[in-house]
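Propose amino acids for all 169 sites.
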């Protein structure tokens, strides 16, 4: 069943946030999500993990997730409790990795209009992002159904396991 809304407080980052800023290479000696989560966005904002709350949303500039193809980046974000990421564009490999890991991401050209600290609601069914602080609503192309199934399952591995067990029917 598709989750209809994501509500959260916004944390902003600029453009070209690469995977090394999301989770620095010095922490890639582990694949344990909880360990990675402790260091998410550390080089972009050393206080990020201590300031954010589970369910918060990152709003960034274009080309979010550029750089290496490491899957650790969306794993770390999701494990830290980031509920979604909104940006005008995403690096293609990060885009795919995010869905494979069950991290919802949304392309919104007007993302720069959303400011840090704003409260937003993403309605995945309607394809809208509402800035509850400014009362402005933006439209985005809703996530295709097959990709929404990956998000709903918590990622590709969970989706595949559900297929094997006959739970996706």
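Proposal:
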């Amino acid at each position: 069943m598709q989750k209809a809304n994501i509500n959260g407080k916004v944390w902003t980052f600029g453009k070209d946030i690469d995977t090394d800023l999301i989770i620095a290479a010095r922490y890639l000696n582990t694949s344990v999500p909880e360990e990675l989560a402790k260091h998410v966005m550390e080089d972009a904002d050393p206080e990020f993990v201590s300031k954010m709350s589970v369910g918060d949303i990152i709003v960034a500039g274009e080309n979010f997730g550029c750089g290496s193809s490491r899957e650790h980046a969306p794993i770390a974000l999701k494990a830290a409790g980031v509920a979604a990421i909104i940006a005008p564009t995403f690096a293609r490999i990060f885009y795919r990795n995010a869905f494979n890991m069950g991290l919802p991401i949304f392309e919104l050209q007007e993302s720069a209009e959303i400011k840090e600290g704003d409260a937003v609601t993403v309605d995945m069914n309607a394809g809208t992002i509402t800035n509850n602080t400014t009362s402005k609503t933006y439209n985005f192309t809703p996530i295709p159904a097959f990709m929404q199934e990956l998000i709903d399952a918590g990622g590709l591995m969970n989706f595949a396991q559900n297929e094997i067990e006959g739970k996706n029917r």
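The two ends are 11 Å apart (CA to CA). The first strand starts at residue 5 and ends at 12.
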